[in-house]
Amino acid sequence: MKILDLIKPGNSEQICQKCIHFQNDPAVIEAVYPGLTIMSSGFASVRDQDGLCNYNQLYLSARDSCPHFIPRISGFNRGEIENSVRSES
Amino acid sequence: MTETTHTEVTGINKPSIWQEFWSKEDWWAVWLGLGIVALAYVLYLTGSSISWIAVAPAKWSTLSQLSTQFSKNGIKYLALLAAFLGLFTIVISFIGQKPKAFIPSFIFIFVLSTVIYAIGSWDQANRYNLEPPLLALALGLFISNVIGLPRWLDAGFRVEFYIKLGIVLLGATLPFTLIIWAGPVAILQASIVSLVTFFVIFFTARKLGLDHRLAAVLGAGGAVCGVSASIAVAGAVRAKKEHPPIAISLVVFYAIILIFALPLVSRAIHLPTGVAGAWIGTSEFADAAGLAAAQSYGGLAGTHLGISGTAEQALASYTLIKVIGRDIWIGIWSLVLALISVTVWERTETNSKVQVGQIWWRFPKFVIGFLIASVVTTLIVHGNTLTDYNKLVKPSLILPITALRTWVFTFSFLSIGLTTRFRELAAAGIKPFAAFTFGVVVNVALGYFLSVIVFGHYWSSIVTH
């Protein structure tokens, strides 16, 4: 039953919701997609917790994950962390 | 990437199952809609009614009559404005928007809606095609595209919230027995059209060389529930950042054309209101756009020769097809397309699995309020004789809820126009445009065939309260 292997029952730790590249604030999504509010909404249930990944340039679920995960941390903004990661790698 | 392990992980926005209840417009539509129905029922039981505050312009033929109405009911209009403003400001605050911007914007919407409602109540309005939904839309489009408004005023133009609240209130005026009786046919008809439309758009887009995910986002927009379906499927299939705006532009473009075109054609061929509502529910894309068309056509019943049925029949058949037949399946569409995406289209891009929970997460929750409202009022109405219903229940309970519903629908139709700035919509490109257009043509033709020829007798005879 290969297809069942693809269905995940719960959350893992390194999901987009917790990643620094991910942004899903409804107000931000409405600003990025200005036509969204004409006949839908950033605050609609159908949008669940989806958002934008600034690394992969994708619009995806907050429960997604990828190898480029960087956890959100306190006291830093995204730009500082991404610069720090780039310089260290 | 590997250097992040020493950092302290804080400020994580954990998704909470409770958070959704006060952060999503869908749930707020449920709370407010059911709250209004409950209040109406409590007052009805005590021998009173919400009709005092559910004020609306009555039919008038001279300006002096209209002026007398407003001077007599001015305090009621102010009370209604205060009630809407108070409730909606609470909602706006909870979902994280700024009340400071919302309040003047909503007052603007209310004043314009009052003008539109009053024009629609003119006894010559139909003669000049001044149906309130179309008037609201046209006025909104004119103001936003010709005159222009400051951006901060957008805070009050919450199309989706108003329409969802209106649909919950609409549930209170629909017998649940009708939903049980007509629901299966609505699902069957909508499923046929949704599947055909999706595959037509998807395979045309693929034939033209478009990305799988863009093809799916376009297909869902045309087949399920417009912009909402496109954005839901975009998240499910991990669309590229630039895909949703393409679908949004195309859906908005055709939805606005169809708001005017479907009632116009229905009127030309004298479709009964229930049948036209079913066709609009099958072939319009977004809930708000379709309701504008259905309400507009329903308003012609009784005033235009050859158009049989009632205004409520148009709204009932529309809502059954659109909400029960199409909207509630968005979670299933998202799950299936997400599975195809991770197994076939984009196996390497992320390492995620598909979560079956999205069937519920993406479920348009306002539908729950719509169904509960219908069950509640059906139980209230049940047991009353026809005389009691017409003498007591209808004027004290059903008609005031209908008046409030018309208000929020008008806020929504006006907001569609006020938020549609054509020059700001993303350029879709010729290939997405061609694929989507082909889907629209098939959708409208098949929708007509099923609504008028196959199930016409069924939709023309539906019974409302």
Key descriptive features of the protein:
heterodimer, A: 89 residues, alpha+beta, 3-stranded antiparallel beta sheet, 4 helices, 11% strand, elongated, B: 465 residues, mainly alpha, 19 helices, 1% strand, Putative integral membrane protein (TIGR00698 family) (chain B), transmembrane helix (chain B), transmembrane (chain B), membrane (chain B), UPF0324_pro (chain B)
Strand proportion of chain B = under 5%
Q: How helix-rich are the residues of chain A, as a percent range?
A: 25-40%
Give the number of DSSP strands of chain A.
4
Sheet-strand content of chain A, in percent, reads 5-15%
Derived from helix and strand composition plus strand pairing, the structural class of chain A reads: alpha+beta
- Cα-to-Cα separation, first versus last residue of chain A: 40 Å
Mean pLDDT of chain A: 80
Structure description:
The complex is a heterodimer of chains A (89) and B (465). Chain A has 89 residues and is an alpha+beta fold. In chain A, 29% of the residues lie in helices and 11% in strands. Chain A has one domain (11-81). Chain A is elongated, with a radius of gyration of 15 Å. Chain B is mainly α. Chain B has helices at residues 20-23, 25-45, 63-95, 99-120, 132-147, 159-171, 176-207, 212-223, 226-237, 243-268, 273-283, 287-298, 311-326, 330-345, 358-361, 366-381, 386-419, 430-454, 456-460; strands spanning 239-240, 354-355. Chain B is globular, with a radius of gyration of 22 Å. The N and C termini of chain B lie far apart (62 Å). The interface between A and B is large, with 53 and 81 residues. Strand 4 (58-60) of chain A pairs antiparallel with strand 1 of chain B.
